[in-house]
Design goal:
81 residues, signal, elongated, Stigma-specific protein Stig1, 2 domains, single chain, mainly beta, Stig-like, two-stranded antiparallel sheet
Length: 81
Amino acid sequence: MICSNANNGSPPGTSQCCMKKCVNILEDKNNCGVCGHKCKYSETCCQGRCINPSYNPRHCGSCNNRYSKGAYCSFGLCNYS
């Protein structure tokens, strides 16, 4: 069941009713991508996929935070040494 996006500020089509609660499946860690899909403790939900922001080159520290060419992601920080 799709929820009304008017009350929760989510983009159209991203809210779903999961366990009688309206959630954004693109960002909800307990309903990532689909209802009931939980991300691991060290992961976060980014664009409907569970990712580890501590070491992910496309999501370093947070969703969609790419670092510059030649840099690396460590502990969620770009070029941390």
